């Protein structure tokens, strides 16, 4: 028996095995719609989660509204009317830059942990803005708050 006939016989044996049993594939568990329905959140927890997310989006939106209302006062207090528009722009830039990163970190570490961490970033940025003594620190705080608000958005 030559090497060619041995190889041909081995191929025929493999082909006959796959035709009888089907291809040998590692088994994996794929969830079906019925299994997903069984694993639903209890209604109270679902409503609490929805309420918490709605509150966070409301606070992030309120942040933009409050800053827009006080822009003239801030500009007069710091004598920097030319840079007062940057308060909104800094916040939006921080939000836009961090939004893709929030999504990726949510996939890696889980959305609850990511949302909580970015919530702390938002609070730290708001505190920094409130404690600022000059326009540069205020702009940095607004950018930092925008980075944290990206998780709510």
List the keywords:
153 residues; mainly alpha
Structure in words:
The chain has 153 residues and is mainly α. The chain is 80% helix and 0% strand. α4 (86-109) packs parallel to α6. The radius of gyration is 28 Å and the shape is elongated. The model has no long low-confidence stretch (mean pLDDT 77).
> What's the pLDDT, averaged over the residues?
77
Between the first and last Cα atoms, what is the distance in angstroms?
Answer: 71 Å
Question: How are helices and strands ordered from N to C?
Answer: HHHHHH
Number of helices: 6
Radius of gyration: 28 Å
Derived structural class: mainly alpha
Task: Give a quick precis of the structure.
By secondary structure, the protein is mainly α.
Q: How are the SSEs ordered, and which strands pair?
A:
Blueprint: H1 3-21, H2 33-38, H3 43-78, H4 86-109, H5 111-130, H6 135-152
